[in-house]
Amino acid sequence: MGVSNGLVDDRAKQVLREAVDAVVNSFAKHTQGYGR
Question: Out of the domains of life, which is the source (predicted)?
Fold first, then answer.
């Protein structure tokens, strides 16, 4: 679990970042109705 683990970590970070972006975007759309 040496080199390959680093690759998986990078891929996981990228996927996690995209997931967070999607959540933040949908959250922003919902909070727009409340004037924030």
Answer: Eukaryota
